[in-house]
């Protein structure tokens, strides 16, 4: 059981969210409306059907559903709508800053215009910024199962997208069958043009995938990454370095089946190993979770103390792809608000 004051603290404390996907954040109602408006056959036509669709046999089954969601986004106005709705949903959880991944290959497949896509996303985020003060910035997450040629094109699109606020380039998708090493050139270009870089790694594949992302791709952040613990030397090395943040998404890992049960999830071990970790919802709609729910889980199932919760929330600022002055401002705002809330709630 969680203390009511602890739950209240978690609900109200300022947060960042560094690992979530736009296409996995479309609410079931919006998804149904978009599929009907754009005549995309999802194979379901009511909320109960969407709920059934959001249960997965395994990780690759999850990726199929993710792709189906992406196909419902066709026009700039669709991207604007889902970006706005997501940003408001995050602002409701006291998220002050978020980085939101888009999957470029899903939209390149359909020859879509990225000015229309990113123009829509930026308009949705701008509206939320004006109404609620939340800052959201896009990032590109390229599905590793697509070709290297498409990956190079995706980096070019990300570079062009920097004028819409794109901050980072990442790889995701089928990690088990597509290791990081072939992307070395792609990431060198991404870094050279001024994009931050990250990778989903150590989610479906083992520690060597994390090592490859760090050593070959030069990533600043790892998505998930929990299987790094299978290599104690690498774990100690990354804990000592302390400059690569692990964006952990516990509910995602249970729902995709890459971890069998919450009890088996190594979130606590990652923290205790001294790895810099953040908490994230990944695909909140597809996994029926929220960022707040992930923090509550950290207390309820993983025994995180208030000090540890505060440390994880601050790591969400330290690991963010923002200029130094913005980071200092957010760190000082977050620390002051944490202290104020702890005093008000007697924690
Ligand atoms: N794309 C969306 N969610 C993902 C995940 N959890 N892993 C890899 N690729 C993804
Ligand atoms: Zn992800």
Detailed description of the structure:
The relative contact order is 0.14. This protein starts with a helix and ends with a helix. It has helices spanning 4-12, 28-37, 47-53, 59-71, 76-92, 104-108, 114-132, 148-161, 184-192, 207-215, 232-241, 250-255, 267-272, 284-287, 291-300, 306-318, 324-345, and strands at residues 15-21, 95-102, 135-143, 168-172, 196-201, 221-224, 245-248, 277-279. Strand 3, helix 8 and strand 4 (168-172) form a beta-alpha-beta unit. The model has no long low-confidence stretch (mean pLDDT 98). It has an eight-stranded parallel beta sheet, with helices on both faces. The protein has a single domain (4-345), classed as Metal-dependent hydrolases (TIM Barrel), CATH 3.20.20.140. By secondary structure, the chain is an alpha/beta fold. It contains 17 helices and eight strands. The protein is globular. The structure holds adenine and zinc ion (ZN). Adenine is lined by residues 21, 24, 66, 172-173, 200, 203, 252, 282-283.
What is the C-level CATH assignment? Alpha Beta
> Whole-number average pLDDT?
98
Q: Based on helices, strands and strand pairing, what is the structural class?
A: alpha/beta
Instruction: Say which molecules are bound, naming each kind only once.
Output: adenine, zinc ion
Strand tally is 8
């Amino acid at each position: 059981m969680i203390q009511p004051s602890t739950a209240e603290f978690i609900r109200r404390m300022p947060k960042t969210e560094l690992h979530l996907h736009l296409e996995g954040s479309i609410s079931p109602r919006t998804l149904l409306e978009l599929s009907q408006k754009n005549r995309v056959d999802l194979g379901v036509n009511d909320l109960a059907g969407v709920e059934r669709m959001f249960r997965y046999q395994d990780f690759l089954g999850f990726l199929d559903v993710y792709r189906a969601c992406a196909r419902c986004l066709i026009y700039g106005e669709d991207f604007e709508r889902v970006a706005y709705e997501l940003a408001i949903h995050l602002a409701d959880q006291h998220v002050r800053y978020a980085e939101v991944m888009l999957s470029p290959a899903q939209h390149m497949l359909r020859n879509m215009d990225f000015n229309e896509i990113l123009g829509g996303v930026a308009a949705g985020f701008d509206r939320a910024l004006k109404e609620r003060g939340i800052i959201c910035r896009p990032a590109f997450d390229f599905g590793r199962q697509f070709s290297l040629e498409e990956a190079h094109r995706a980096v070019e699109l990300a570079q062009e997208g920097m004028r819409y606020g794109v901050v980072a380039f990442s790889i995701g998708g089928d990690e088990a069958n597509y290791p990081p090493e072939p992307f070395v050139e792609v990431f060198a270009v991404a870094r050279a043009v001024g994009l931050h870089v990250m990778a989903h790694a150590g989610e479906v594949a083992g520690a060597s995938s994390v090592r490859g992302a760090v050593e070959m791709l030069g990533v600043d952040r790892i998505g998930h990454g929990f299987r790094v613990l299978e290599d104690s030397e690498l774990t100690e090395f990354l804990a000592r370095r302390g400059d690569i943040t692990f964006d952990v998404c516990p509910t995602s890992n249970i729902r995709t089946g890459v971890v069998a049960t919450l009890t088996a999830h190594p979130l606590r071990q990652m923290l205790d190993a001294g790895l810099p970790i953040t908490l994230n919802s990944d695909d909140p709609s597809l996994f029926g979770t929220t960022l707040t729910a992930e923090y509550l889980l950290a207390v309820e199932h993983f025994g995180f103390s208030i000090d540890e919760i505060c440390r994880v929330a601050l790591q969400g600022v330290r690991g963010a792809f923002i200029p130094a002055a913005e980071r200092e401002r957010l760190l000082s705002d977050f620390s002051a608000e944490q202290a104020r809330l702890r005093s008000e709630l007697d924690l």
